[in-house]
């Protein structure tokens, strides 16, 4: 059953805040009229999950997972299916990445544990967030932030290469995300267009941390071949140990080539031939690609890892110079989130929102700071509300290119919605 009999108990009353149980102590306390099953949304929901036949059936057939109502498929990867879902209480859209536990060997389980640990450690406007993990006997569900604007690969396949300014704005955000990852000692190792998503408002989201790894230092040598061959650096094909950051930088070079030209730099019909192409460095940037962009691509696709550009160096390059971020790039996260006062305000707002839904102070925990247990529905609701609040305060404002003409349709939409902060331009052509 996909999260049936979801128990929400305060800390200290049971082994965890959320567990799949026989449902015996879900819902109101007996004999306490104020705690009746209809007194708040949370109680109504948990009561339905125990007693409403339709809801119980939906849980059994996977139309509901925990507190989420599941809709159609939105993506598919080598290891998972991804579906759209809604939080039954907050009504926010989320992406459910569904993994079949019965088909996972020890290696895959280890990777998944890393994917969860690394994704939940990150909080950045250009990195997909993990809200919650729901586990059933056969499946694992990663509840992720929903990026409703599709993935970069599909966009380029459908519409061809990106217009110059849109390409700049999107690539700058990808770089910003990778800088943040590397500052946090996380190497992505599977950067490719399929793993770069857009929100409906054009904010870029780097996704899929299935091959990511956390290193004690950026000079730590790694030895597992990961990722997708067309994006793999020469040192990976040489079967050598390798350093993490330059491998991500090479993949960024392939990605920028693809964004700017609509074609891949290294193409071959067999893996052996592809390997040869990459080892020979056999690629050519079309002459019509602007010089500063060409130089950036070539700086990332240098054969020797030590010669490749560093991420910091690239953010200040000629080609990206006109991109204006709404916050300085020096801090690890947008400045609002390092400001203690603002953080406290946000936390207050989120806790008030949770209380309105029926989560008590006991559920959330009385200590300052966010709940940490990803397998708890309290954490899921907390992170969703936190993200919503941060978005409302402008944390996902899309950068602009100085002097770029804004898309009048988006401007109209912005005025109509009366948004306090919104993306200022159309990111893709
Ligand atoms: P692979 O290893 O083959 O890249 P995977 O099994 O690890 O794939 P993901 O890459 O995480 O799975 O997801 C597969 C696809 O599902 C993505 O390419 C994207 O189209 C869609 N998808 C994934 N996460 C989200 C999300 N948060 N929002 C919207 N769509 C998503
Ligand atoms: Mg993927």
TrEMBL record:
Biological source species: Gadus morhua (Atlantic cod)
Pfam families attached to this UniProt entry: Pkinase
Name of the gene encoding the protein in the UniProt record: nim1kb
A single GO cellular-component term on record: cytoplasm
Protein name: non-specific serine/threonine protein kinase
Swiss-Prot/TrEMBL catalytic activity: L-threonyl-[protein] + ATP = O-phospho-L-threonyl-[protein] + ADP + H(+); L-seryl-[protein] + ATP = O-phospho-L-seryl-[protein] + ADP + H(+)
Residue intervals passing through the bilayer: none
GO BP of this protein: intracellular signal transduction; microtubule cytoskeleton organization
Keywords assigned: ATP-binding, Kinase, Nucleotide-binding, Serine/threonine-protein kinase, Transferase
Binding of ATP, residues: 97
Disordered, as annotated region: 1-44
Assigned EC number: 2.7.11.1
Gene3D superfamilies per record: Transferase(Phosphotransferase) domain 1
Keyword Acetylation: no
Protein family: Belongs to the protein kinase superfamily.
């Amino acid at each position: 059953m996909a999260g049936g009999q979801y128990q929400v108990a305060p800390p200290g009353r049971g082994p965890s805040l959320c567990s799949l149980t026989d449902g015996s102590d879900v819902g109101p306390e007996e004999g306490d009229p104020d705690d009746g099953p209809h007194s708040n949304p949370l109680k109504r929901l948990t009561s339905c999950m125990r007693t409403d036949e339709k809801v119980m059936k939906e849980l059994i057939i996977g139309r509901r997972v925990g507190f989420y109502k599941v809709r159609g498929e939105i993506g598919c990867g080598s290891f998972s299916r991804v579906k759209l879902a809604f939080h039954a209480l907050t009504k926010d859209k989320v992406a459910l990445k569904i993994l079949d536990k019965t088909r996972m060997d020890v290696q895959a389980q280890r990777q998944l544990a890393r994917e969860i640990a690394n994704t939940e450690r990150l909080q950045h406007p250009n990195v997909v967030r993990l809200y919650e993990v729901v586990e059933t006997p056969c499946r694992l569900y990663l509840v992720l932030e929903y990026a409703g604007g599709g993935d970069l690969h599909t966009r380029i396949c459908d519409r061809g290469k990106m217009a110059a300014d849109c390409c700049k704005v999107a690539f700058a955000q990808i770089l910003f995300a990778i800088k943040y990852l590397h500052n946090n000692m996380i190497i992505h190792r599977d950067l490719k267009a399929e793993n770069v998503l857009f929100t409906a408002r054009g904010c870029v989201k780097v996704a899929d941390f299935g091959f990511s790894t956390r290193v004690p230092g950026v000079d730590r040598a790694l030895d597992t071949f990961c990722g997708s061959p067309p994006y793999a650096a020469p040192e990976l094909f040489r079967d050598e140990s390798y350093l993490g950051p330059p491998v991500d930088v090479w993949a960024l070079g392939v990605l920028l080539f693809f964004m700017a030209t609509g074609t891949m730099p290294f193409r071959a019909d067999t893996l052996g031939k592809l390997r040869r192409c990459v080892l020979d460095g056999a690629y050519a940037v079309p002459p019509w690609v602007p010089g500063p962009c060409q130089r950036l691509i070539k700086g990332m696709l240098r054969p020797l890892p030590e010669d490749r550009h560093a991420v910091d160096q690239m953010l200040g390059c000629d080609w990206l110079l006109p991109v204006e971020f709404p916050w300085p790039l020096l801090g690890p996260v947008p400045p609002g989130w390092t400001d203690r006062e603002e953080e406290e305000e946000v936390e207050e707002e989120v806790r008030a929102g949770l209380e309105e839904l029926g989560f008590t102070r006991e559920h959330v925990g009385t200590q300052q700071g966010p709940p940490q247990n990803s397998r708890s529905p309290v954490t899921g609701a907390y992170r969703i509300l936190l993200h919503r609040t941060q978005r409302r305060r402008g944390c996902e404002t899309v950068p602009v290119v100085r002097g770029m003409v804004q898309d009048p349709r988006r401007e109209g939409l912005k005025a109509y919605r009366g948004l306090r902060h919104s993306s200022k331009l159309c990111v893709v052509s």
